[in-house]
Amino acid sequence: MAVAKKAGRYCGGLQLNSLASSILCWKWRRRPAVVVPWTAICGLMLFAVGLISLFTGHVASDLEWYSQRLVKRTWYYKLDKGNRAPIDIWRSKFSNFYFACSERGPHFAPAVREHLSNGYLLIATSGGLNQQRTGITDAVVVARILNTTLVVPELDHHSYWKDESDFSDIFDVDWFISYIAKDVPIVKRVPENFMRSMEKPPYTMRVPRKSEPEYYLEQVLPILLRRRVVQLTKFDYRLSSDLDEDLQKLRCRVNYHALRFTKPLRNLGQRLVMRMRKMAKRFIAIHLRFEPDMLAFSGCYYGGGDKERYELGEIRKRWETLPELSADEERSRGKCPLTPHEVGLLLRALGFENNTYIYVASGEIYGGEETLAPLRELFPNFYTKEMLAGEELKPFLPFSSRMAAIDYIVCDESNVFVTNNNGNMAKILAGRRRYAGHKRTIRPNAKRLSALFTARDKMDWSTFARKVKSCQRGFMGEPEEMRPGRGEFHEYPSACICQKRSKFSVINNNKGYRNLDRFLNVSEPEYLSDEEQSENRLPKHKNESSGNRTVSITMAETDRDDFLSD
After folding, report:
1. How large is the average pLDDT for residues 219-226?
2. Phi, psi at residue 551, to the nearest 5°?
3. Tell me: the pLDDT tens digits for 502-557?
4. Is the entire prediction scored with pTM above 0.90?
5. Residue 218 backbone dihedrals phi, psi, to 5 degrees
6. Dihedral of the CA atoms 48, 49, 54, 59 (nearest 10)?
7. What GO terms describe the biological role, i.e. biological process, of this protein (predicted)?
8. What are the φ and ψ backbone dihedral angles of 151, each rounded to 5 degrees?
9. Distance CA 207, CA 19 (A)
């Protein structure tokens, strides 16, 4: 009875008298069950599964992120002996962990003999020296794809630069032929007896930009087999940047080894380098593109007031198809070259001292000495090829490509290379310097720097310098910037740079250490200035008819970023 009363009093969790408890309990037990629709149950289950997936997915990704950071941070600190050492503005401390690797692979078949090849490939390049260099490099690879004999490419004599130089005036043609002989047969001209035997002249065509190897095999090879001689015109960036590893390595062998300048150009270039080194143990080379035509084409404004707007506007009228551009929008998008003054501010903010020696590689500068004055004030030890060479430069003065070759040599040999633009020479030299040991190469992060330069008067120098250093993270030529698939291959030749084996290596893909590791990502980098490096100053060493077919050319194909971009 006591148990019943106790049960009654607490029935349903309520403490009531015995009679009330009995009535309430009876009604509670007799209450009809609530029917829940199956659709609601399924919806709740799906919602719960979604929440679980979302939560576990975030957890998994966070765990992966933290684990990767831990692995990379551990390796970084082992290399630095546990210290967060500042970045050396003169050289990368990680460059010794990488080496150039463009040798032929074991399965790369030797070159076919000339008489057994599929015919002869004629190439007409386009643009300035460095744009033509990319065309020559890709021409060798296309000849390999087509299993054909390459005729030494013809240089462009009709573009903006109006240079009458032939291939043999700029490059060592015999060295070029012999160096590539194991990969592709190359001849100086199509044999005369072969030309006489042809019923029709060579077939001329232009291929689309960045064409895949399959395009050449499907569209060009059948014509080559039928006609035996094919000429590809305006050949610049006509081959995809993404090729298989053996073909990418062939690109590197051509660009970094086979394309050697002629002896007179090499000798003068090296003399200028020696003269710079006599004055300073190390120096910066600045590639400064600031010609009136280039500035007009860019559509940007550089602070010269109404005079500049009128003069550049008149030059811009030469191109009828150019779209109207907003100068402010172009600058915010990082499309405007830095002014000489901005280049000087960038270098000083990074930590280069006022007594640093600089070599300026440039053509005609818009505004002349007045435009260059702020850069000279920031770096009084200012030199150009004209200042260093004097009378020795006279034989080359009428030829813009040969003058560009001299600048190329000095820039390549400099301790630090800086550019104010994103043109062909900037890209080609950036790739070459990576290949040659990740020599310090500073590319301005123009998109982020533009806002800083605009607001420079609103902050003190230390704040400005700190923000510049932060902006330039990832634009200093460090090995960590190399990622397969990033940018043009000529600028990021990842297939041709390998990582040395070491106990700190993170990735081993059974093909050597490639796919270069990302090092520690620090949000606020530190930089060693000249003063702080005094104990360790020296580095360790329209419709257009084209032959038999008509090709429609548009501004999109011409790619405004490549125009006047050497």
Report:
1. 97
2. -120, 135
3. 655 443 343 433 444 433 333 334 555 555 554 443 333 333 334 443 333 343 44
4. no
5. -90, -30
6. 100
7. fucose metabolic process
8. -90, 140
9. 98
